[in-house]
Amino acid sequence: MKKILPLLLQIVVAIILLKTLMFKFMAHPESVYIFKKVGLEPYGRIGTGITECIAGVLLLIPKTVWIGATISLGIIGGAIMMHLTKLGIEVNNDKGILFAIAVLTFILSGVILWIKRKEIKFF
């Protein structure tokens, strides 16, 4: 169980990060709306997508899991801050689902990083 739980968490976070890529890269109207509202369209949308892609892949490579989790914490932490300051919890009548997914991803990334903390070389 000690090896299965971290792997499951890594897969869940990677799927969440990688699943949202098509919305960002294909300029889905909701994604464009969000990034316009925070003043980062199109470069922020594309840059965020690239960063999430990198984090998602790193989460699936055993030696780089902690790096992927750290990147995920940073990028999703920024998304949560945008929700709390500029977007609001509910975006386009989504009942807060996008915000809830961001919070879940942030928490799971933190748990992964905590589990993998001994693998971080400079600590």
Provide a descriptive summary of the structure in words.
The chain crosses the membrane at residues 96-115. Helix content is 72%, strand content 0%. The protein has 123 residues and is mainly alpha-helical. The protein has one domain (4-118). The radius of gyration is 15 Å and the shape is elongated.
Gist of the model:
This protein has 123 residues and is mostly helical. The protein has helices spanning 4-19, 21-25, 29-37, 43-58, 65-87, 97-115.
Total number of strands = 0
Radius of gyration: 15 Å
Number of helices: 6
CA-to-CA gap between the ends?
Answer: 26 Å
Write down the domain tally.
1
Described by the principal axes of the CA atoms, the overall outline is elongated
Class inferred from helices and paired strands: mainly alpha
**Residue share in helix:** over 70%
Beta-strand residue percentage: under 5%
Overall mean pLDDT: 95
Largest sheet, described in full?
Answer: none
Q: Unreliable stretches, pLDDT < 50, 5 or more residues? A: none
What's the SSE pattern?
HHHHHH
Oligomer: single chain
Organism: Aquimarina algicola
Protein name: DoxX family protein
Keywords: Membrane, Transmembrane, Transmembrane helix
List the helices and strands and how they pair.
Blueprint: H1 4-19, H2 21-25, H3 29-37, H4 43-58, H5 65-87, H6 97-115
Helix pairs in contact: 1-4, 1-6, 4-5, 5-6
Features:
123 residues, mainly alpha, membrane, transmembrane, transmembrane helix, DoxX family protein
